[in-house]
Amino acid sequence: MSTFIGQLIGFAVILLIIMKFAAPPVRKLMIAQQEAVRTQILESAKAAQRLADADSFHAERLEVGRLEARQIVDEASVDSLRVAELLRLQAEVESERLKGYGDQQVIQLRAQRIRELRSQLGSDALRRASEMVRERVADPQERSATVDRFLDELEAMAPVAVAPELSPSELRPASRDAQAAVEVRFDLLATALSVEGLTQLADELAAVGTVLLREPILARHLAETSGATDSKQSMLVRLFAEKIDPGTLDIVVTATQQRWSATADFVKSLEHIARLSLLERAQREGHADEVAEQIFRFGRLLQREPQLTSLLSDDQEPSAARVSLLRAVIDGGSGASSTTIALLTQTVELLRGERADHAVQELTSLAVSQQGEILAQVSAAAELSNAQRERLTDVLSRIYRHPVSVRLTIDPSPLGGLSVAIGDEVIDGTLSSRLAAATTKLPD
After folding, report:
1. 126 found inside a domain
2. Domain tally for the chain?
């Protein structure tokens, strides 16, 4: 019994201890656990509510999405139709543009091909025509017939032709009048001069011209227009009275008394009178025609030899060197007369930047004009008959209303016909020029 009571007491003590010390924490723990469970239940309810709300929102948004998707599809369908129509219109416009461009290209290619065919046909026809012409003019009679046809054309020109300027001078009016006055003075003096006197006059005028070219200030003073003629005459007397003949001095003084457009014209007039003096000498000796012919031949030589022309025209070289070259060429078997040599020597010695071939051509025209004729330089593929030469001279004389001297040059390149040059006027009736003219008219 006591054991029972003891155990009961022990149980009570343990129960008391448990109730006092263990139960409160356990109770707090249970309360905390209950509170946690209650909180979890509330959160679960809230989560369930949020889930329900999310499902509801999802359903709503899904429906809205379906509506928007249907609207987008409808709009896309409308836009696709509009874009398709727009692309169709653009395609039609582009197709028309490409078609028009293609038509233009076809037209241009067709026109280009037609031009090429025309050009090719024209070239072939012209080449064949050239071959036929060359074959035809190989016959001397046919080549002579081309000259006769050209002379017939010149006959038709005769009634309407106008006489050209016969003087080779290109002086301005004032200088031309001044040179004419000097020529008058020369004509008066020349009548009293012998052949030797004319030669001396020419040499001394050339020497004065050389001095003036070397002393441009002196030349400008003598050529300037002023009333101080006495002072210029006194200066000339001091400079040249003991070196040149009084007749030569008289010519120079007369020149200084004139009104010149340029100093170069004054110097050139002295050279001109020197040439006239030598030509007058040739006239008196009876070989003026020979001199004109020899000068003409030398001019043709210069045209055939451009290097020789360049050497004679080079004013950087001393005049003595150029004159030596000239004499070497002339002495090489040309048989030129002393008058011809003197004229050509003066011309080369007094060059002032001009081309030698141009100066010799001017000298040729002067030599012919002094005989009362104008010079016609004629190019032909073969020698003319006497009848053709006489007819050509007669026709040109009637066209220009002045006696004409014909200088003939044989050149195979014209093929047939003639080319006539009088001064700056050229009448080209050669077959080669007509073929060349036909070539320029071919389509590009």
Report:
1. no
2. 2
Residue pair 186/276 in contact by the 8 Å Cβ criterion:
yes
DSSP 79-137: HHHHHHHHHHHHHHHHHHHHHHHHHHHHHHHHHHHHHHHHHHHHHHHHHHHHHHHHHHH
Based on the domain organization, do 155 and 199 belong to the same domain? no
- For residue 11, tell me if it sits in a domain: no
The answer to whether residues 222 and 150 belong to one domain is no
Helix/strand/coil for 377: strand
Q: Is the whole model's pTM more than 0.85, yes or no?
A: no
Taking the chain (444 residues) in consecutive chunks of 10 residues, what is each chunk's mean pLDDT?
77 77 76 83 84 84 85 84 86 86 86 78 70 72 79 70 45 83 88 88 88 86 74 81 86 87 87 89 85 82 87 86 87 76 87 85 80 77 84 82 79 81 77 71 58
Q: What does the alpha-carbon distance between residue 94 and residue 143 come to, in Å, rounded to a whole number?
A: 65
DSSP state letter for 160: G
With contact defined as beta carbons under 8 Å apart, do 201 and 277 qualify?
yes
Closest to 388 in 3D by CA, of 86, 128, 144, 84 = 144
217 and 312, same structural domain? yes
Pair (379, 314) in one structural domain:
no
Per-residue buried b or exposed e for 252-277, using 16+ beta carbons within 10 Å of the residue's own CB: bbbbbebebbebbbbbbbbbbbbbbb
